[in-house]
# Entry
Amino acid sequence: MYKILHVITDKNIGGAGVLTLSLLRHTDRTRFAPVVALPCDSLLLPRARALGVRVCPLPPSADGTLALAALPEMLRILWREKPDLLHTNAALFARLAALPFRRMACVDTKHCCFPPSPLQKSAPARLINRALERASEVRYILTAEAARGPLLLCGSSPSRATVICGGAERVPRLDEAKKEALRASLGIPKDAFVVGYAARVERGKGHEHLLAAARLLSNRKDIFFLAVGGGSLLPALQKAARGMKNLVFAGFRADIGEIMNLFDLNLNLSYLSETSPLSLSEGMSLGIPIVVTRIGGNAAMAKGCGIVLPPRNPRALADAILRLADDKSLYTSLSSGARRRYPHYSAPHMTAKTEALYLWLLKHK
# Structure
């Protein structure tokens, strides 16, 4: 049996954390013994323990990829645990700590595809990055093909990257009585076509374009917009939407899976970076067509199950919504496509591909 040490620095529960929890949940415990190291004040910690996974707490300073203050504790954990493989998530300090352990395999997951900064693309930075890769023999998991370009611009070797799309858990279906009660609690008209968007309300996610599209379609009383998620921009958007009868910014909801049962369309309106958004995969498990911007891995996810738009274009968004609300044949076709596509973006599929990479690396280390 191989011991796998996962390292993640997230303190809140975001996409990387959810993916890590899914990986832990579906790991084949007859072949792998997972352990996870994360900040002692992370919201992920109790969830990891609830999965029966042993946790190695890191200091609160382990918050970010270059958390050098956490390096001593990371070294102690590696020395004590002696894992066969280290799997990091935006935790460069953990890869640095692993350098003395030459027999340890190393995997690093890239969850984003932001363009690298001029400093990251500079010749000295590229040389340092390549040297660190050779020293640690790291292999990268990219959660979308779109993440490959930024990686290569930083000097990484193409042979070190493997695409394994993020995988979501299947969302349980609600019965009609529960759906109707939930609709009523959110103020959604009984027979409305619900356009849903589940995402953090932050810069780059495009909620302002959702608001603009809702205004463009305010004359369609049968179309309702529902945005779910918290974030720093939420108060301003809630204020801007005050008085609108076809849009609700519901804020953070722990019951997002139940709320997703109300969606007829599932949006992603990002205009900065996306790889394989879990909210889209979760919606696919319910057969919900998607409407996404042409950013990162969005277009690849939409094949056969959605419509792709230019970013920052409320008019194009409104037109796509009208098309799917009014064309039942197209809607049914894309809904069937979403169900067919879900297994490729499921948590078990992601875990199986990740474990296959683990075994290959452990065999060839």
Observations:
- DSSP finds 16 helices and 13 strands in the chain.
- The chain has a mean pLDDT of 96.
- The longest helix spans residues 347-364.
